[in-house]
Structure formats: C-alpha cells, structure tokens
Specification:
The chain is an all-alpha fold and 387 residues long. It has 19 helices and no strands.
Length: 387
C-alpha cells in the first residue's frame, strides 16, 4: 500500500486527502444536527461575550432578539455536553459493565481534568468573561457514574434535578464563602457562574435524550414538542408573574421564581432547558433536509467547539492587550465592534481546518490523551498481580 501511494500523482494524493476530510465532516460518524447545534451555541456565546446587549429578550420587540443568546447559549452548550457524552459512550446502548464501562469512565475523567486545566489557563489571560470550562469539567466528573444508566432512568432524574436543585441553589448562592476574600477566586475555579449543582440537570437531560435514541425521527419530534412546551411554561410563568430583578435580591421566593439569564432560578432552568432541547431537535430535523449543506460552515464550527471557544478568548486577550493595553477592558473591547470579525473568521478558519486538516487541534489532543490514559490504566490493571 505504501509503495502504491508513493507512485500516485500528487493531485491524486491531494484529492484522496481532501475526500477523506470531506467524508469525515459529512459522513455518518458525525451527526450533522448535533454539530449544527454546537456551532450555534459557540456563536451564541461569542455574541454574549462581544455584543452590547442592553435590553431583555422580548418576542414582541425584534430589536431585543439578540438577547436570546444570554444564558441560553451556555445552557445549550451544557445540554449538548450530555448529548456528546451519551453518543460517545454507546448512544442508546450504554456500556453496562466490564472494560468498556471502565474505559468510558476513565476517558471522561481525563477529559474533565484537561478541560479544567484549559479553563484555568484561560482565566489567567485576564479576559473579562466567566469561563465555562471549569464548570464543564465538574459536570463531566458528575456524569461518570451516570454512564451506564438508560433513558428511562436519566430523563426522570433530569426532571427531578431541574425542580429540586434550583430550590437548593438559592441557599448555596448565599453561603458566606462567596463573600469571603477567596470567594471570587473559588467562584472562578469552579465556574460558579454556571453552578454545577443545578446545571447537572441540563447535562443529564442531554445524556437522557442520547440514550433515548436521538437519531430517530420520533425522538427528535418528541424533543421539539417537549422542549417547546417547557420553554413556554418557564418563560410564560415568568412573564405572568411579572418577576423583577429587585425581587430576586429581596426574597427567597423572588430568587427562585425567575427566568432571568444566569439566575439558575426554577423558571430559567425549566424554560432555558426546554429551549435547549427544542433547538437541538430543530437542528437535527433541519439536517434531514437540503439545509444540511447550507449550514456546513456552522457544522464545521460545531465539530471543533473547544478549539473555537478557546481560540476566541486567546485572540481576545492578544488583541485587547495590543490595542487597549489590557485584556480586562470589556467596555473598550466591545466598543471595537469585534463580534463580526471574530464570528466570520471563526467560521472560515474552522471550515478550512475541517476540510484541509480534519479534527480540531484541541479536540484531537483531548481525545488522544483520554484514549492513551485509559489504555495505560487498563494495561496496568491487567498486568498487576492479583491480590
């Protein structure tokens, strides 16, 4: 085979390479709708970081629609994390025991550690955003014991967590530690802006729909209907109650009964969790049509979300330091109107990388590292003398 390859014309070799990259991006090993949803989540987080969003989202005022990204993009990200874990660990047929389960758990632990390290390094850049990766890492660790569970267990669990944890979250947010000298640093290293005790509900929901068979049309339609109903329930209850920000500060019930972005209130968890499920389902259904080709660049971004997310913050730190003299000048950086340059360059670079190189660089590092560590642990365990 190597001799035959060596004698092939250069254009043939190049054509074979491009064909393999194209097949990797568009073939059955990738789920186009999930990639599309990830791409939207990434660009949504770009919007939340880089745009001035002064007014709350309102269906009746088109000028506020950009505010849909606030809070919802990160919750979509967390829900997709559960979907990805589910798909990577067997989909509707999770590993129940043995080496397959051990390998899946080891790889998830390694991924969590690497995500936390990358998140900590991003925090050190001084870019003035709440980095989601530390929270992501803790959510991955919490998912380790959930891998063998099926949809009939996971979906009721997600529902229970969505109702119970916001009730407890209000008390957790009032713990004295957050007001201490080390509270800010602790908040950042555990990603408390995306509090894992409550946000685990989103990951479990994503894992549950992956176990339910997310590739089936029936499941996708069910997700769209159920997610839309939950979004209407959460946001409708918030609108009907006339909840205001002052009520959140003044009472326990006010802090609980709200759908404000990043509040982790009950109505936000129900409404934005349902919104995430509906968006994922809509992306999956859209990619069953000819639209799958029109959204290819967004799918390329979604195929390497870690690289896109980290790249945005690293470039932000470099540009802000060079132009403004400090990475932490949020107002000054937003005034540079960086969203469209960042968004378009990300789409172009991710598409080019996917077609010319393949897997995103950070995705490759994390996946390769998790595979090697899991393999090394299993070999060591097999060679260790029995006790």
């Amino acid at each position: 085979m190597s001799e035959r390859r060596a004698t092939m014309p250069a254009d043939s070799v190049g054509g074979t390479w491009l064909a393999s990259r194209w097949a990797r991006l568009t073939g059955p090993q990738r789920i186009a709708g999930v990639d599309l949803a990830r791409g939207l989540a990434v660009l949504g987080m770009f919007s939340a970081h880089l745009l001035w969003i002064d007014d709350p989202f309102s269906w009746t005022d088109a000028s506020t629609w950009v505010a849909v990204v606030e809070g919802r993009s990160s919750i979509l990200f967390a829900t997709l994390a559960g979907v990805s874990i589910g798909l990577a660990t067997g989909g509707a047929a999770p590993p129940a025991r043995g080496d397959a389960l051990t390998t899946a758990r080891l790889r998830l632990v390694v991924r969590a550690v690497l995500l936390w390290v990358i998140g900590a390094l991003l925090i050190l850049t001084g870019v003035p955003v709440y980095v989601i990766l530390p929270a992501y890492a803790l959510l991955f660790l919490l998912a380790v014991p959930l891998i063998p569970l099926d949809a009939r267990t996971l979906l009721p669990l997600a529902a229970a967590l969505a109702v119970v944890m916001p009730v407890l979250q209000v008390a957790l947010d009032d713990l004295p530690v957050w007001g201490s000298a080390s509270g800010e640093a602790l908040s950042r290293v555990v990603g408390w802006h995306y509090p894992f005790p409550t946000w685990i509900a989103f990951l479990v929901a994503g894992l549950g729909v992956a176990r339910a068979g997310i590739l089936r049309t029936r499941v996708q339609v069910w997700m769209l209907v159920a997610g839309s109903a939950l979004a209407a329930l959460g946001y409708g209850a918030d609108a009907a109650s006339g909840a205001v920000r002052d009520a959140e500060r003044s009472s326990y019930l006010g802090a609980l009964w709200t759908a404000r972005p990043h509040s982790s209130g009950l109505l936000e968890v129900v409404g934005s969790g349902g919104f995430a499920l509906a968006v994922i389902a809509a992306c999956l259904l859209a990619c069953r049509t000819v639209l799958v080709w029109a959204v290819l660049p967004l799918r390329a971004v979604g195929a390497m979300p870690l690289t896109a997310y980290v790249g945005q913050l690293v470039v932000w730190a470099v540009v802000a330091t060079a132009v403004l003299g400090a990475a932490g000048d949020l107002a000054g950086f937003r005034d540079l109107t960086p969203f469209w340059p960042f968004a378009l360059s990300t789409v172009v670079l991710c598409t080019g990388w996917a077609l010319l190189v393949g897997r995103g660089p950070l995705e490759w590092v994390v996946d390769r590292s998790s595979r090697l560590v899991a393999l090394a642990v299993l070999k060591w365990d097999a060679s260790a003398p029995s006790r």
